[in-house]
């Protein structure tokens, strides 16, 4: 039975990681719905390695270009940064926009790293309360709806600045609370800052890579140790399934947001969060 449950959760992880609906909330709510044991924060973190591997593969060219430009920029001769200087840097083999993106990802990752280490025990215990998850699903759904409606959506990747990276990184740190959604929080902040939907989503996904991989590697021993909910084999299987499912979801999502709003995800968040809270209020579910 544990293999079947892990497989279902792997599919769920792959389906929900990149949508602004919180994969960690789903991996907490759906076991409760079917009477399964909570897989725990360690299982969730390790299964996310699969989805982040999918995003690395999807953005492989961009990531390679960003890393190359970032390293080249470290050794490039300093200049005033005017148009002629930027053209000169491109002639030397890299685009300064890509080099800046490397710095933005590094700086934007710092808030979630600091918060994750400081709040580790709370994240693995108190934050998994269904009261918190149901509330954050609804609250962040409403906030995302406001951002999607009022955001100017005029700025592209070339318009990103360090202050944007800091703000979006701080928003990403909120996703340590299940129900917030890593992509949802980052995209919401990006929209409030005036980024267009594809740019906000692309930066949110790039920003998540080091944080999610770091968290998964850190939690790997806990997820694999004897006495964990699913153990080594089922957890690895769930991670592989999450990777395969996520590949299709990424491509679909970018096609969607190029033409449509986040409205369906907003409605879904509010409905799922409200359902969770009702189940708690009626005593059908326990919070922990």
Please tell me about this protein's structure.
This protein has 288 residues and is mainly α. The protein has one domain (2-281). It contains 13 helices and no strands. Helix 6 crosses helix 11 (197-224), helix 8 runs antiparallel to helix 13 (263-281) and helix 11 (197-224) packs antiparallel against helix 12. It is globular. The protein starts with a helix and ends in a 7-residue tail after the last helix. The relative contact order is 0.20. The mean pLDDT is 91.
Looking at this protein, list some descriptive labels.
mainly alpha; single chain; 288 residues
Please report the number of helical segments: 13
How many whole angstroms does the radius of gyration measure?
Answer: 19 Å
First-residue to last-residue Cα separation: 22 Å
Question: Would you tell me the overall average pLDDT?
Answer: 91
Assembly of the depicted chains: single chain
Principal-axis shape equals globular
Structure described in brief:
This protein has about 290 residues and is mainly α.
List the SSEs and their pairings.
Elements: H1 2-16, H2 23-34, H3 40-58, H4 60-75, H5 83-91, H6 96-118, H7 120-124, H8 130-150, H9 162-173, H10 182-192, H11 197-224, H12 232-259, H13 263-281
Helix pairs in contact: 1-2, 1-12, 3-11, 3-12, 4-6, 6-9, 6-11, 8-10, 8-13, 9-10, 10-11, 11-12
């Amino acid at each position: 039975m544990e293999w079947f449950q892990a497989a279902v959760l792997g599919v769920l992880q792959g389906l929900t990681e990149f949508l602004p609906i919180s994969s960690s909330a789903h991996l907490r709510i759906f076991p409760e719905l079917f009477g399964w044991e909570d897989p725990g924060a360690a299982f969730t973190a390790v299964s996310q390695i699969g989805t982040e591997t999918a995003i690395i593969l999807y953005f492989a060219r961009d990531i390679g270009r960003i890393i190359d430009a970032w390293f080249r920029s470290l050794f490039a001769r300093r200049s005033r940064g005017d148009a002629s200087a930027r053209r000169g840097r491109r002639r030397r083999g890299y685009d300064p926009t890509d080099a800046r993106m490397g710095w933005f990802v590094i700086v934007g990752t710092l808030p979630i790293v600091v918060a994750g280490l400081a709040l580790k025990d709370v994240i693995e215990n108190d934050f998994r309360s269904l009261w918190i998850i149901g509330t954050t699903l609804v609250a962040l759904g409403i906030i995302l709806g406001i951002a999607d409606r009022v955001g100017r959506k005029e700025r592209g990747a070339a318009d990103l600045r360090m202050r944007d990276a800091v703000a979006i990184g701080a928003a990403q740190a909120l996703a340590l609370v299940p129900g917030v959604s890593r992509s949802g929080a980052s995209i919401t902040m990006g929209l409030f800052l005036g980024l267009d939907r594809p740019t906000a989503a692309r930066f949110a996904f790039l920003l998540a890579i080091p944080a999610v991989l770091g968290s998964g590697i850190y939690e790997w021993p806990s997820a694999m140790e004897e006495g964990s909910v699913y153990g080594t084999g089922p957890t690895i299987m769930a991670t592989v399934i999450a990777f395969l499912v996520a590949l299709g979801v990424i491509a679909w999502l970018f096609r969607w947001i190029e033409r449509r709003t986040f409205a369906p995800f907003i409605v879904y968040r509010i409905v799922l969060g409200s359902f969770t809270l009702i189940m708690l209020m009626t005593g059908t579910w326990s919070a922990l």
